Every structure is written in structure tokens, then in C-alpha cells.
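Session log. Operator J.P. requested a structure for one protein chain; no other inputs attached. Running the standard single-chain path with C-alpha cell output.
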Amino acid sequence: MRIALYPGTFDPITLGHLDIIRRATALVDRLVIGVAINRDKGPMFSLEERVSMIEAECAELSEQMATEIVAHPFENLLIDCANDVGAGIIVRGLRAVADFEYEYQMVGMNRVLDANVETVFLMADAKHQAIASKLVKEIARLDGDVSRFVTPRVRLELLKRLGKNQA
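Structure written below.
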């Protein structure tokens, strides 16, 4: 069974994340969405809320792709999380060259920690390359329309969290 781990904070999950998830499911039998507990980032949504959004957004996709997709919170090293869930592959999404420089360093460190876990990079679809959760939250906070960046369900969660009109 081919198991991959796609890690991130997913605060919130975006259409860019879902694009990578959709394409990763074509490569594996089981995709674990590693939801990072990163207290330093000060997430807008709690861990439970982020996991719930991921599960809701991925349920239909899992069925369509006939691939198991599960959300798995983690707070340890990424390579340890991969081993915990039995993943031989780490999936990383790339948007720009700047992403690659950081990811390249991460791959090198992870290879030293465990050479048996491969990292696979998937380029975000061109229409999703500019999407970043941080920017989506800022747009929503400043009353911009985020409907091109997140699903309707996630948009409502963002607006509710910010106390905004949900029209």
C-alpha cells in the first residue's frame, strides 16, 4: 500500500491545497493530511476546526478518487510523523521558486533523518499558484471576496470567525 503524507497548517484549507490533495490521491492508496500543531503561527482556527474542515472538504474527493484520505494532527518532526503514519512519501506543494528553496533544505534534512522517505513535489495549478492561507485570511479580514480561493463552506467559516456578514 502506497501511503503519502501531505503536511501543513491548513489555516484554512484552500483551493490550492485541495488541488494538491486531488492530484496526490492519483499517486497513492492512502493520503494522510498532516495537520500541524504550530503554536508559533497563531492559527485563526483551532486544530479541531482545521481537521473538521479538511474532513468535510475531502470526504467526497476521497470517494471520487477511491483513495482513503485522513486528517492526522501532529506536533513532532515531519519525518517522525511520516513514520508514525507509515508514509513512504511526503507530498509538498510548490507555488513559486521561493517555495522550492525552503523545501529543498527541508528535503535534505529529512533525507539525513530518514533516507527511506521520499519527497514528491507537485506544482500548484496555475490558477491556484497565488493562493496562500495567510493572504486569504487577510483578504477576508479586510472585507474582500475570498470565494475564488476557498470552497463555499470554508468561506462561511472564515466570515463567521471574523464576525462578518455571510451574504
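Operator note: The chain has a mean pLDDT of 93.
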